[in-house]
Amino acid sequence: MQTKTFSHNGATITVQTTTGATILDQRAAEVTLGVYDNSVPQRTRYHRIKFAEAYAHSTIEGTLGFDWPEVPFDRDAMAAACEAWLALPGEVIEQWVNELVLVNTTPNDPDLKPPEAVEKKDAKTRK
């Protein structure tokens, strides 16, 4: 499992690779936050989905200045944490979202290499 770690205001945020547990926690958080309720504006649902993803994949050491729920089933706690998370500085959210992508990127993924590097490898394999 890969992890990525960064800090904000003395808190250490560790983002981990997707696992079965993170998928289940993310879905539970999404249900708790009402992201499948079509009466909720689409932009709000999108924000809640991104928070649910960050919540499920992250552990926090220290404090971000708000309570980070222990479990994703308390609607009031999750809603308060989501609102506080969305109010964090933009650069923190941007780094968090980027780390969520990077932690799930396979190192040396041929799809992410320049074409010339992949072609050379393919040519060697064919010989």
Structure explained in plain terms:
The protein has one domain (3-126). The protein is built from 5 helices and 3 strands, in the order E-E-H-H-E-H-H-H. The chain has helices at residues 20-32, 42-57, 75-86, 90-102, 115-126; strands spanning 3-8, 11-16, 58-61. It has a 3-stranded antiparallel beta sheet. Helix 1 packs antiparallel against helix 2 (42-57). It starts with a strand and ends with a helix. The model has no long low-confidence stretch (mean pLDDT 90).
Give the helices and strands as they follow along the chain. Answer: EEHHEHHH
What's the alpha carbon Rg, rounded to whole Å? 18 Å
User: Which geometry do the CA atoms define?
Assistant: globular
Helical segment count:
5
Main sheet makeup:
3 strands, antiparallel
How many strand elements? 3
Uncertain residue ranges: none
Question: What count of domains describes the coordinates?
Answer: 1
Mean pLDDT: 90
Which sequence of strands runs across the widest sheet?
1-2-3
**Helix amount:** 40-55%
| End-to-end CA span | 34 Å
Strand coverage percent: 5-15%
Q: Structural class, from helix and strand content? A: alpha+beta
Q: Could you give a short description of this structure?
A:
By secondary structure, this protein is α+β, with helices and mostly antiparallel strands. It has helices at 20-32, 42-57, 75-86, 90-102, 115-126, and strands spanning 3-8, 11-16, 58-61. The protein has one domain (3-126).
